[in-house]
């Protein structure tokens, strides 16, 4: 008497997103008075964007919202108006996160003259 049980279970395919978003500046920063204005485009081919943060000169990361108010699409634009306190160069970095917790980033240099 053979009492061996057999069976199989098939699961649904699972997609893993290991690809970070592509982030790029849309042009050179525009310095107007004591502010630099710069826009970045972010695109994710495998999922959707969830949030973004910017940093100036390696300082603390600050949350920034997409131009349409929320990071929820595969493509978003982020426009920053960064205060420039004194004469010199400023490195402005943006990092963008996708639904898979991948991070893409880009940076530009803004200059404030005398």
Explain briefly what this protein structure is.
The chain has 114 residues and is an all-beta fold. The protein has one domain: Sandwich (Immunoglobulin-like).
What does this structure look like?
This protein is an all-beta fold. It has a single domain, classed as Immunoglobulin-like (Sandwich). Helix content is about 0%, strand content about 50%. It is built from no helices and eight strands. A hairpin with a 5-residue loop joins β4 and β5. The protein is rod-shaped and about 95 Å long. The mean pLDDT is about 95.
Tags for this model:
114 residues, mainly beta, Immunoglobulin-like, 4-stranded antiparallel beta sheet, 8 strands
Residues in helix, % = under 10%
Determine Rg (CA atoms, Å).
21 Å
Euclidean distance between termini CA atoms: 95 Å
Indicate the CATH architecture: Sandwich
Q: Output the CATH topology.
A: Immunoglobulin-like
In CATH's first tier, which class applies? Mainly Beta
Q: What low-confidence regions span 5 or more consecutive residues with pLDDT below 50? A: none
Order of helices and strands: EEEEEEEE
The shape is rod-shaped
């Amino acid at each position: 008497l053979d009492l061996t049980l057999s069976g199989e279970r098939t699961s649904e395919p699972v997609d893993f997103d290991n690809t970070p978003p592509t982030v790029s500046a849309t042009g050179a920063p525009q310095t107007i008075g004591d502010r630099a204005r710069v826009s970045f485009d972010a695109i994710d081919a495998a999922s959707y964007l969830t949030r973004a943060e910017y940093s100036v000169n390696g300082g603390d990361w600050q949350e920034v919202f997409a131009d349409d108010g929320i990071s929820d699409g595969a493509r978003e634009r982020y426009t920053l108006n960064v205060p420039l306190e004194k004469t010199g160069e400023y490195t402005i970095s943006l990092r963008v996160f996708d639904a898979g917790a991948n991070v893409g980033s880009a940076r530009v240099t803004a200059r404030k003259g005398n």
